Amino acid sequence: MQLKTAPLAVALAGSLLTAPAMAEGLLHWHSNSLTYLYGKDYKIDAPIQQTVTFEHVNGWKYGDTFLFLDSIHFNGKGNDNGNDDSTFYGEFSPRLSFGKIFQRDLSFGPIKDVLVAMTYEFGEGDVETYMIGPGFDLDVPGFDYVSVNVYHRDTDGDRVGDGTWQVTPVWGYTLPVGNSDILIDGFIDWVVDNDSNSRGEEYHANLHINPQIKYDLGKAMNWGEKQLYVGIEYDYWSDKYGIENGGFVSENFVGKTDQNTFSAIVKAHF
């Protein structure tokens, strides 16, 4: 998972990878994981990066929760003119389910449930953002899960990007291959509008597409399924961080801001 100032996002990626159910209590299921990622050709930050990501996901009596924390290490020039060789970024994303709260079947058409989706973005520097809006769990044939969250974004202080809207679909799909499986999961963060502040700073609409393709190595080696994955991550981010590619900041300070890169990943669940 990448450093993002306009996320996820969220993603319930990994929500199908759960611990044994505890259906009688407040917590029904949960899963934790660690991911190592190595990639090149990143924009704005150092071009070569290594990231270690902790993820937690759970389902509980009244909804679900997703949390991740990235520890990002720069190979070569990092932030702050090369003075920083690492940084961190995370998101905390609880959702409240109307179906669970009111104990009603709210499904209609492709919609399985309606939720209140929230995300708190945090990290090093001025990145804090609070997001809230409607969420929808969808019934899409063949997929393990598909959800769409629509967020209203509120930045901390007078930072640009305040009052914008973000659409975040997430998905998971399992494809049997031989004696194992390939898991295709990921998210899209689409900030649909622009913003500017009193200082003349501008925030540009941006699109972040982040799928992962992972092979269940643990299942293939008879170590247990859904425990150890290896694979690749594709990361496309137009106008990264809301900085317009080819705009004033791009041309004079940070270079191109359209990111298009692949990374190798190893992911372990526990």
Structure, explained:
With 270 residues, the protein is mainly beta. The protein has one domain (27-269): Nucleoside-specific channel-forming protein, Tsx-like (Outer membrane phospholipase (ompla), Chain C), CATH 2.40.230.20. It contains 4 helices and 14 strands. 36% of the residues are buried. Residues 1-23 form the signal peptide. It comes from Stutzerimonas stutzeri. InterPro entries: Channel_Tsx-like (IPR018013), Channel_Tsx-like_sf (IPR036777).
Class derived from helix and strand content: mainly beta
Task: Kindly identify the CATH topology.
Answer: Outer membrane phospholipase (ompla), Chain C
The major pleated sheet works out as:
12 strands, antiparallel, barrel
- The number of distinct structural domains comes to 1
Tell me what the CATH architecture is.
Beta Barrel
* Helix and strand sequence: EEEHEHEEEEEEEEHEHE
CATH superfamily annotation: Nucleoside-specific channel-forming protein, Tsx-like
Number of H/I helices: 4
